[in-house]
Amino acid sequence: EGNDGVLISNLLKDTGLVTLDSGFVNTASCESKITYIDGAEGILRYRGYPIDELANNSRFLEVAYLLIYGDLPDMDTYAAVVRRIKRHRLLHEDFKAFFTAFPSNGHPMAILQAGISGLATYYQHTLDPKDPYQIELSTVLLMAKVPTMISYISRRAQGLPLMYPDSSLQYIEDFIRMTFGMPYANHDVDPILTDALNKLLILHADHEQNCSTSTVRMVGSSEANIYASVAAGVGALSGPLHGGANEAVLRMLSKIQESDMTVQDFVNKVKNKEDGVRLMGFGHRVYKSYDPRASIAKQSAHDVLEKLGKSNEQLDIAMELEEIALKDDYFIERNLYPNVDFYTGLIYKAMGFPEEMFTPLFALGRLPGWIAQYREMITDPATKIGRPRQVYTGETERHWIPRSER
Ligand code: ACO
């Protein structure tokens, strides 16, 4: 805002001037009360709470509630939320056919995006973003049904039967049971797995106006329903420069492991920008210091591998990559540090998830953030339909000539 209270963007609009900010490096698209990041200091807070306090003490649904409603739930509220979500975990029986209609080796993110979009056809009574009752119900439906979808996608990819949710189990326990196919309701799910997944989902739960969240807001700004908007976010997340990086990190580590290249050779390749190769899981638009989520994920990777008694050569390669990069001028000058994706794939792998499921797990974690941001956007009176301008660099006026004369 200028001194006289007039929005500078409105002044620019009146003069016909536009700002060009490729990749929105320095353009705020909204005001938000949800997530705070200080990229220089490596600080991340959800609704004011430091990420490490939440990751070390909370349950994922508690953090989801915090992001969506603004405060941590008390005992009764939390119990009611959990109960409500449990009641909606089933997918319509007809919807099962949808998951078997895709090639079984199709990427899970493509199927997930289509599946979330498809929820709009089954729950047509929840599509009006301006109706508080409908937005409340669609929030619960998304939180309840997306884990069911992800486990269906994972099971189907392996040619295994799809399993029904079991409402006697907790959210994460039941997701693991359905995905890995433990048949009995009272089957013990290893607490090492549930604790690790709980932590990872919390770490991913929101990250202010990143690529996928901005996409959710952009689509929602046209008053498109929440399913269409979140599905668009899944599409944005699938890219290797965003959520797809967790899968790309594992591919990179395998490549180094299987080649005769040393870790230093690979780092040199990155520095020389050979074939455009990047150190996946490194660098961030906002963090110019260590990503606080990466430190928690790194510790968790050590804990999980140790508790599961798995030695892991790829973790050793990752540590060596980090050690070399953090001492190298190329990375120091560009402020390139590990981001959240650098260590998470190793944890998912140790837990037994196939690589192509890593990014859907990120999506499950990010779901409450997308919902919270959509809801904030739709209820903010300042929201306008997203419509960036451009700087036109094409032809000036020219005139049509018949094809035979071109
Ligand atoms: N490896 C090697 N060099 C890198 C890397 C990397 N991972 N990231 C950035 N750089 C270099 C660029 O080549 C560029 O160098 P230059 O100035 O010599 O041209 C400089 O650092 C700045 O890079 P930009 O691409 O301009 O930075 P930007 O902020 O646009 O990109 C991004 C951020 C996309 C995350 C980038 O760092 C990257 O591609 N990282 C690897 C992919 C990744 O891990 N993505 C996950 C991000 S976290 C998340 O989405 C959850």
Automatic annotation (TrEMBL):
<keyword id="KW-0816">Tricarboxylic acid cycle</keyword>
<dbReference type="InterPro" id="IPR010953">
    <property type="entry name" value="Citrate_synthase_typ-I"/>
</dbReference>
<dbReference type="InterPro" id="IPR016142">
    <property type="entry name" value="Citrate_synth-like_lrg_a-sub"/>
</dbReference>
<keyword id="KW-0808">Transferase</keyword>
<dbReference type="InterPro" id="IPR019810">
    <property type="entry name" value="Citrate_synthase_AS"/>
</dbReference>
<dbReference type="InterPro" id="IPR002020">
    <property type="entry name" value="Citrate_synthase"/>
</dbReference>
<feature type="active site">
    <location>
        <position position="284"/>
    </location>
</feature>
<dbReference type="GO" id="GO:0006099">
    <property type="term" value="P:tricarboxylic acid cycle"/>
</dbReference>
<dbReference type="InterPro" id="IPR024176">
    <property type="entry name" value="Citrate_synthase_bac-typ"/>
</dbReference>
<protein>
    <recommendedName>
        <fullName>Citrate synthase</fullName>
    </recommendedName>
</protein>
<dbReference type="InterPro" id="IPR016143">
    <property type="entry name" value="Citrate_synth-like_sm_a-sub"/>
</dbReference>
<dbReference type="InterPro" id="IPR036969">
    <property type="entry name" value="Citrate_synthase_sf"/>
</dbReference>
<feature type="active site">
    <location>
        <position position="341"/>
    </location>
</feature>
<dbReference type="GO" id="GO:0005737">
    <property type="term" value="C:cytoplasm"/>
</dbReference>
<dbReference type="GO" id="GO:0036440">
    <property type="term" value="F:citrate synthase activity"/>
</dbReference>
<dbReference type="Pfam" id="PF00285">
    <property type="entry name" value="Citrate_synt"/>
</dbReference>
<comment type="pathway">
    <text>Carbohydrate metabolism; tricarboxylic acid cycle; isocitrate from oxaloacetate: step 1/2.</text>
</comment>
<comment type="similarity">
    <text>Belongs to the citrate synthase family.</text>
</comment>
